[in-house]
Amino acid sequence: MRLSMRCIPGLLIAACTGAFAQQWELGGAAGFGFPRTLSVTNQDLKGKAGFSKGAAFSAVGGQHLYRYLSGELRYVYRDSDLRVTSGGTKVKFAGDSHIVHYDALIHPPAEDWRIQPFLAFGGGVRVFRGTGRETEYQDLDRLAILTKTDELKPVFSLGGGFRFRLNDSMLLRVDFRDYMSPFPTQVVLPAPGATMKGWVHDFTPMIGISAFF
After folding, report:
1. In the predicted model, what is the mean pLDDT of residues 70-81?
2. In terms of Cα–Cα distance, which of 51, 40, 44 is closest to 144?
3. How far apart are CA 186 and CA 48, in angstroms?
């Protein structure tokens, strides 16, 4: 079978397009975060300190790197007020956080799939922010003081999920992540003499739509 010279450029373009087709992903997601609080004690007074449950909004850009491996960069906004509780007393302070991380995704081969499960792990940074209005007196200030401060911490991402192919260019994604960071002790400041140890574990399920090309 002979090919004319005029056909060759078109075939090369088609081949290149096919080689790079469905290699990139761009999308967004929404969900809800469920952070774990830490125990805090000061002599005879005991309580919990940390962050409230709240909405999560995410943007993601990824690339299929190898047959079983993809990589993606993700930004997550978390609406997460600061809080300290003891008995029936609760103190809240407006806050949020911003997460930027890169994950590696391990998955089955991508050829002819409709539902693709994956495992995800990676890391990045998280900025914890107290955005409320500070006052001279705060309840439970023997345990912790909630401050209007920004604090940068490393974050480790671990989780997984599913991709569902909707059509030739759109995906439905279900993701779950545990965002793990050292506790930000400048934003939620332990009171003098108080003991509070541990990490923030923010369990965050999300669902979203992505385009792939």
Report:
1. 97
2. 40
3. 16
